[in-house]
Amino acid sequence: MKKYSVIVVGMGKRGMHHATAFNANPRFQVAGICDIDQARLDAAAAKLGNPKTSKDAAALAAELKPDVFCFCTMPHLRMPFIKAGVQGGAKLIAFEKPVSLTSAEMMEMKKLLDSAGTKAVVSHQHRYGKHYQKVKEIAASGALGRIHTVYGTATGWMTHMLSHMIDYSMWFNDYAPGVWATAQAAGKSKFADNHPSPDYIAGFVQFANGVRGIYECGAGAPDQPEVAKWWGKNRIGAQGTEGFVEVLTNGGWRAVTKSGGCQGGDGVMNYDADMPPYIQDMADWLDGTKVHPCNLAHAALGAEVMFALQRSAAEGGQIALPLTAGADEQAMLKAKLSEKPVLASCEANKKEFGLA
Fold first, then answer.
1. Mean pLDDT of the 234-246 span
2. Which of 66, 68, 287, 339 is placed for a possible disulfide with 5 were both Cys, Cβ 3.0 to 4.6 Å?
3. Which residue intervals of the chain are DSSP H helices?
4. Residue 26: is its pLDDT beyond 90?
5. What are the tens digits of pLDDT across the range 189-216?
6. Nearest CA to 83 among 15, 13, 9, 31?
7. For the chain, what percentages of helix, strand and coil (3-state, to nearest 5) are there?
């Protein structure tokens, strides 16, 4: 079978997760890697079979013309690398969540990818965890009766975590698109972070199939005291007329159904377990045997919800979906939010948001 060439840009933690998983999969060859830090680049090359190295991603892509262009960079760096991948002739571009910081950038990105016919994958890879898979299985089985609510809460701030919360809850709801969203937000300290965000955002979404989405992200989101790791205090689930099921990122899964009673199991986020199938699904999509479940079309549906929540928090009222024009939601929200400090839901959140 065809072996696909790959360039990976960014040799930090996430870049190495991707590069190592590509390198371990016989369907891929890591042909090139890129980073602006020469020492980090050299160290990574030694672990990856000494591929071609460069500090210039666009030049490397133009030279090697990879099948897959993967970049793992901060969220303000999206379009330059999308352009580099497209201009280098990549068949598939893979990158980190969130899709983008603004709806204007996402619309530009989608237009470019669509015009080039380039596939795109967004790294919502938590779904490969066995506990996430079990929750999806129960939600899809009919055991919950008519599903009427999906939800996601995370104590981490928006640009880090809300993309995950929305995507997995929409997965449980078969990616029915949003119809409208409404939200409130508070606190401005995390706009200075490399994942700029309000300190807290919470809102509601109406989906096209009648299901209601409920989301909270940041300092005001509820604690999950049964989970020790702060970044793993994420709860995503579905409720129906005959039960509920939910997953905790670092705390397994649990369910109550009319036919099955109380159920539960273990599971934690584990890159070593989650990355291999995420990477293999790229090979399968390139082969034409399946569509990658983390495809951009799915991720963009969730991103639109995330942008609509921000617009609502900035403008007030309900925001209709789909969005018809792009905007800079980050600037809108930052300009409108009060200078009042956020109120945290628990001591752990006070510490993480500098309130302790």
1. 98
2. 66
3. 13-24, 38-47, 57-64, 79-87, 103-116, 130-141, 158-172, 271-287, 296-315, 329-336, 347-352
4. yes
5. 999 999 999 999 999 999 999 999 999 9
6. 9
7. 40, 25, 35
188 shares its domain with 283:
no
Q: Are residues 175 and 131 in the same domain?
A: yes
- Per the domain annotation, does 244 fall within a domain? yes
- Residues 105-162 have pLDDT tens digits of 999 999 999 999 999 999 999 999 999 999 999 999 999 999 999 999 999 999 999 9
Question: Domain of 147?
Answer: 127-270+303-336
Q: Do 89 and 136 fall into the same domain?
A: no
Do 279 and 151 fall within a single domain?
Answer: no
Name the pLDDT band for 226 (thresholds 50, 70, 90).
very high
Residues 225 and 283 in one domain: no
Phi, psi of 153 (to 5 degrees): -130, 145
Which CATH number does the domain housing residue 140 bear? Answer: 3.30.360.10
Kindly list the distances between the CA atom of residue 250 and the CA atoms of 48, 128, 131, 232, 268, in Å, as whole numbers in the listed order.
29, 13, 9, 5, 4
Backbone angles phi, psi at 27, to 5 degrees: -85, -5
What angle (nearest 5°) sits at the alpha carbon of residue 58, between those of residues 57 and 60? 65
Q: Report the pLDDT value the prediction gives residue 356, as an integer from 0 to 100.
A: 78
CA atoms within 13 A on the CB side of 346: 13
Asked if the structure places residue 352 within a domain, the reply is no
Average model confidence (pLDDT) across the chain: 97
**Residue in 3, 121, 112, 13 with CA at minimum distance from that of residue 70:** 121
Domains identified in the chain, total number = 2
Are 292 and 280 within 8 A, CB to CB?
no
- Cα 267 to Cα 230: distance, rounded to the nearest angstrom: 16
Q: In what order do the strands lie in the sheet with 212-218?
A: 261-265, 252-257, 243-248, 234-240, 147-154, 212-218, 200-207, 178-186, 319-320
- Answer yes or no: do 309 and 161 share one domain: yes
* Sequence-distant (≥ 6) Cβ neighbours of residue 294 within 8 angstroms: 121, 122, 123, 124, 125, 127, 278, 281
State the pLDDT at residue 344: 98
